[in-house]
Amino acid sequence: MKNDAPRQLRADAARNSERILRAARETFAVSGPGAPLEEIAQRAGVGIATLYRRFPEREELIRAAIDQIMAEMISPATEQALGDENPRRGLVTLLEAAMSVAARERNTLAAAKDIRAITAEVADRFFESLTLLTRRGQQAGLIRADLLPDDLRTIVGMLIGALWTTDPDSDGWRRYVTLLLDALSPSAASPLPSAAPLRPKPDHWPVPADD
Fold it and tell me: Using CA atoms, how far apart are residues 126 and 202, in angstroms rounded to an integer?
């Protein structure tokens, strides 16, 4: 029986962490990125002491929530996209997954932006996959040849910006993903002006300013 106790404690701690992270995402969605930790604990059905025991700092909680989002929504989409024999279709899969996350989790992402909890490392993994899919598409003649890797960060920022002009309860962003992808097709390509140097790479996921 002694050997079972530590395992039970670890299982209970894992369940508490899972419950707290989901509650955090739900609370941010309802109450905004500045929601108090006490409200998160209440929604999770745990005491504030339990929350602090699992996540001593607010930043740790938000980082863990972002990791949960990435594991549940972005990582599977990335695997599916990179495994698709059609790189343009893979690009659609990954962009739509990113936009779906940005739409559903906008307040969690805003909370992460406030404390720089979305690191360059997290963003870089996403953009590396986009770049790989784009290069495959260019090699296959499915993506315009003059698209540069640096263009992808700006394009994603433009798409996320569209969320702030559409009904947050709709999937109106899909219209702009479709328009963008049409613009990336070689058949629709017009000569591009020279690329301007980008500002220094942000150290967090691109999230528009609050309303």
Answer: 14
Reported residue count of the chain is 211
Q: How far apart are CA 2 and CA 194, in angstroms?
A: 69
Angle of the 75-83 helix axis to the 87-104 helix axis, nearest 10: 170
Whether pTM exceeds 0.85: no
**Cβ atoms of 143 and 87 closer than 8 Å:** yes
List b or e across 57-86, with b for residues whose CB sees 16 or more CB atoms inside 10 angstroms. Answer: ebeebbbbbbebbbeebbbebbeebeebee
**What is the spatial distance between Cα 120 and Cα 160, in angstroms, rounded to a whole number?**
17
- Cα(165)–Cα(167) distance, integer angstroms: 7
Four-way CATH pick for 1-56: 3.30.410, 1.10.10, 1.10.3470, 1.20.58:
1.10.10
Determine the Cα–Cα distance for residues 12 and 178; give it in Å rounded to an integer.
45
98-113 per-position pLDDT tens digit: 999 988 998 998 888 7
Closest CA to 60 of 19, 16, 10, 17: 17
Q: Given CATH 1.10.443.10, say whether it is the number of domain 58-211.
A: no
Over the stretch 26-74, which tens digit does the pLDDT of each residue have?
Answer: 999 999 999 999 999 999 999 999 999 999 999 999 999 998 999 999 9
